[in-house]
Write a structure and sequence with these properties.
Blueprint (H helix, E strand, L loop, with lengths): L1 E6 L3 E8 L2 E9 L7 H13 L8 E6 L2 E3 L4 E3 L9 E3 H9 L3 E5 H11 L9 E7 L3 E7 L2 E3 L13 E2 L2 E2 H4 L2 H6 L4 H9 L3 H25 L3 E5 L6 H15 L3 H6 L1 E4 L5 H8 L1
Parallel strand pairs: 1-4, 4-8, 9-14, 14-15
Antiparallel strand pairs: 1-2, 2-3, 5-6, 6-7, 9-10, 10-11, 12-13
Helix pairs in contact: 3-10, 6-7, 7-8
């Protein structure tokens, strides 16, 4: 048995994984912004403890941050003000007495998404793009998770784009700039609201630019979109693909690219159990 933990900005999700299958889950609110590092660690340990048993062999955790993978130190976690330098591995191993692995949350999602493909049709190069509060990118190359030297591989969301960065235009932040929530805009677009349809078309063109950069950087065989906004793919897929076809110089590569959506809540937990 392995405990997989997905530390998100809204929820702390914990699952008990047996043979790649989640057999028990729990979800609680994530840390309060005012909580100290000590308070957050105790809060996390308390909820992991509720899932522990003598059959648990190890713990895997996905965090919204860069990580020293060998030492298990988390640096400057997004949306957790007190997490500037957290020795999470040593803390949890001292508390529970089992090995602990830590990685970036987007990387964990990538490993979980890779695991959903049947063994006979695994992607050669999988790039996952989580569309949430920000944009998170993970890469799995022939079954191997690509982390980079400092767990920062794939952070293309911070690249300069227009008057900000890609993340400003390819995540919930795009909809925030227009004063609307993504799911509300999607509901309105499906009902035929022209303004909401136009908004998702514009979003698709911005995301098309991001996908084009991913193809230049990683030449993926598969791209998987995750996060809540990914469920609206039919609203932005056409403009996204049109943008790419008009600009990408290797059309045969793009036509071979398989684009999927995987938004199951268990995927990050399974991924965390695999790191």
């Amino acid at each position: 048995m392995i405990i997989g933990v997905d530390l998100g900005g809204t929820n702390l999700c914990i699952g008990l994984v047996d043979g790649g299958v989640v057999v028990k889950t729990a979800s609680v609110p994530s840390f309060a912004p005012s909580a100290s590092m000590e308070e957050t660690l105790e809060y996390m340990a308390e909820h992991i403890s509720a899932m522990m048993s003598r059959d648990v062999e190890r713990i895997g955790i996905g965090v919204p941050s860069v990580v020293d993978l060998k030492k298990g130190i988390v640096y400057e976690a997004a949306n957790i003000p007190s997490w500037k330098e957290v020795h999470l591995k040593s803390f949890l191993e001292g508390r529970f007495g089992v090995p602990v692995s830590i990685n970036n949350d987007a990387n964990c999602y990538a490993m979980g998404a890779y695991g959903t493909y049947p063994s006979e049709s695994k992607p050669e190069v999988l790039v996952t793009v989580t569309l949430g509060t920000g944009i998170g990118i993970g890469i799995v190359d022939h079954g191997r998770l690509v982390c980079g030297a400092s767990c920062g591989a794939g952070e293309l969301g911070y690249l300069d784009y227009k008057d900000g960065c890609l993340e400003d235009y390819c995540s919930r932040q795009f909809f925030d700039r227009h004063g609307v929530k993504p799911h509300e805009a999607a509901t309105a677009a499906i009902a035929g609201d022209p303004q909401s349809i136009s908004l998702y078309e514009e979003f698709g063109r911005h995301l098309g630019h991001a996908v084009m950069l991913l193809m230049y950087a990683y030449d993926p065989s598969h791209i998987v979109f995750g996060g809540g906004i990914a469920n609206a793919l039919p609203l932005f897929r056409g403009p996204m693909e049109d943008y790419i076809r008009e600009r990408f110089p290797f059309p045969s590569n793009f036509e071979k690219l398989q684009i999927d959506v995987k938004t199951e809540n268990e995927i990050p937990i399974i991924g965390a159990s695999l790191i």
